[in-house]
Design brief:
Four copies of one chain form a homotetramer.
Chain A lengths: L1 E5 L7 H12 L5 E5 L5 H5 L4 E4 L16 H6 L4 E4 L8 H13 L3 E6 L2 H9 L4 E4 L11 H4 L1 H14 L4 E5 L5 H9 L4 E4 L1 H4 L4 H9 L3
Parallel strand pairs in A: 1-2, 1-8, 2-3, 3-4, 4-5, 5-6, 6-7, 7-8
């Protein structure tokens, strides 16, 4: 299972969490990664933790003040990027453009979406993975795998119909190892989570709990 | 074949064009319709021409100043609506929401997109139809069916893979009956066009030319 | 005082409310107007009520599918338009462009904004009027003139500093004649309101109450 | 004079340019600074050059995936930020929010705008400075101070009317020391430039030319 910790713009120490990710990653079969803000990418990547961007724009090198260029995200040490997170919803044409930009910069891509229909749409654009995150469950502590297992299974089915080589992740409310196991049993290959680790008093312990049952 | 005439915000007489659409529609096996601006929907629908909206927002009745409500578009006499035209690109989540809003108001839906990957994505959201319109060909007078037939065939294939009951239209540069025939031969069930009719000195003659070879 | 009734996308009968506006307008010194959705402009204007748009885009005639053209809003019978309502926030450059578009089409302009600083900014663009509407009070039934009189007075002062010929209106929570009087005493020349009339069982009675103390 | 070098998403070496900025800054009375992409802020700040962000979002710490937090821009070493560059136009309410966010993080603010009316609007929001950049001149090599001196003088006047403690900069087409001098003679306190330095074969020489006549 892939466990991607999104630090959003939380008031956490991104380096300390990255070190916890790097540390726990060495002691588990799961694959752990961390997605800091763009301004923190370099210092996070320097910890050795697998580092992801939270967003890239559908642009190339050029006159794009204030944008996030895939090449610069990669150059700062990231190996992948989220696209279209529910807190950064994008136009369909721009999701397509952002995937092309990320491909060009050799960044792995996870496109987020709200529901199975949108997951099918995202999968049709051929990112490496899609992630179903019902916005109403984000940050609740109630895992999507328990609150709405159908939405996860339907998302897996929708992605498979459209493009069978696109992985499916799920997110929203994930905070325990049982949630991760349940996500796997519903057919996903990983989870997105945020506050469960980023706001934990002891991120290392939180991560150990998450991967313990795997 | 379905021929949908988009009046955009052209300085044309929407009623005169609607009357031409209504008139020619009675003398052909093709299905003709016209999509005026929201403020012109009523007077266009009163001509008896099949009337479409150019856009609906992903909203319900409520506090949405300055938005386009599907129910109001239907109530003004429209039977369908474009969504995500290249001049009004929308977020993926909002295309999904706009299709649901249109379904609720019994409006037929055509979701536009730039290329085969985005057509597959649009089809996964299950509108009634999708329309491939390469933005670089819009308004050129060079029909997509001639300039880039592969993009049309690939769009038809992409839609079919994802959802085989979603029709495919094409647009951009369509202005003659031969263009419409060519579009049909590439597997589409209709065309979107705009300036070819809306800017014609004689819209009735332009429409007759379009449907003559059908 | 100017009383502008915004119908948003409420499930009301726009013609019935327009008739009430027209009717009450004849029996008061206040100036009453109604702002329906774009698709309802024509039928509302036909009642003889002063009719306003809820929004115009910063565009000219041309290739702008799904946009709201100032000329078409005027052509459908409107004499003015809201711009930048808190439910349709616009880019600074587009507010400027929308005012120019409205000027071109002889539409009167009211630019909405959240707070005194933004009111000053809006006034610098030289619309006919600005309207301060704290978003947190919209639809509450608690009038801004009572909940936060300072914000109204500060908005009047901010507009005056920047451009002394720009009128100031206020909105949010206005529902009684006392609210309108209070708004006038704070230095405004009118009010925006919505649910107080649009959701009233008897819009004529609601309007009569609003203008009774004037 | 303040000379702010915007690196946009150009394919330049941000550290090499920052070193040139730092180097030339020590040998001139002008104040030089450099604005790299967010992902490059740390490595640029480490050179000792005065470092600026290209954009901040109107947010606080919290659930804002893919956004640019003022605190993180400051934490990475920046002392100021551009807001509303013509390549990243923002809603009026969000420009206001971004200035508040930057103030909170002790970042100096320069709000860009297209024309004198928008400059007045931006000044009403009380940033530290505003910058007038006619979009049609950006990247042309024809300096705004020569192509359209009136727009610069009108912008200075507009800002002064609204808020006399807001500095005015100008940009677009600036590439020589004469352009910088001309900008000062028109009443501005600095210039924004980009390609003239970022695409120069020898950034140090380009910067020396810029400040030589000062």
């Amino acid at each position: 299972m892939f466990v991607l910790v999104n630090l959003k713009t939380y008031p956490c120490d991104p380096v300390a969490i990255a070190e916890a990710v790097s540390d726990v990653n060495e002691r588990t079969d799961a694959r752990l990664a961390v997605a800091p803000q763009a301004a923190h990418l370099e210092r996070v990547a320097e910890t050795g933790a697998e580092t992801w961007g939270q967003h890239v724009d559908p642009i190339e090198h050029g006159s794009n003040t204030g944008h996030t260029l895939a090449e610069s995200v990669a150059d700062a040490g990231a190996v992948g990027t989220l696209i279209n997170h529910s807190e950064r919803r994008e136009k369909l044409a721009d999701i397509d453009g952002a995937i092309r930009a990320a491909d060009r910069a050799d960044l792995e891509t996870v496109v987020c979406a709200n529901n199975p229909a949108q997951i099918g749409a995202a999968a049709a654009l051929e990112p490496d993975a899609v992630a179903v995150e019902p916005p109403e469950l984000i940050g609740t502590g109630t895992p999507v795998s328990q609150a709405d297992p159908d939405i996860v299974e339907d998302a897996v089915a929708a992605a498979e119909t459209v493009a069978d080589d696109v992985s499916v992740l799920c997110g929203a409310g994930i905070s325990t190892g049982d949630d991760v196991v349940a996500a796997g049993e519903l057919g996903t290959e990983g989870v997105l989570l945020a506050s469960g680790v980023a706001k934990a008093d002891d991120p290392t312990a939180a991560l150990e709990d998450l991967v313990a049952p795997l």
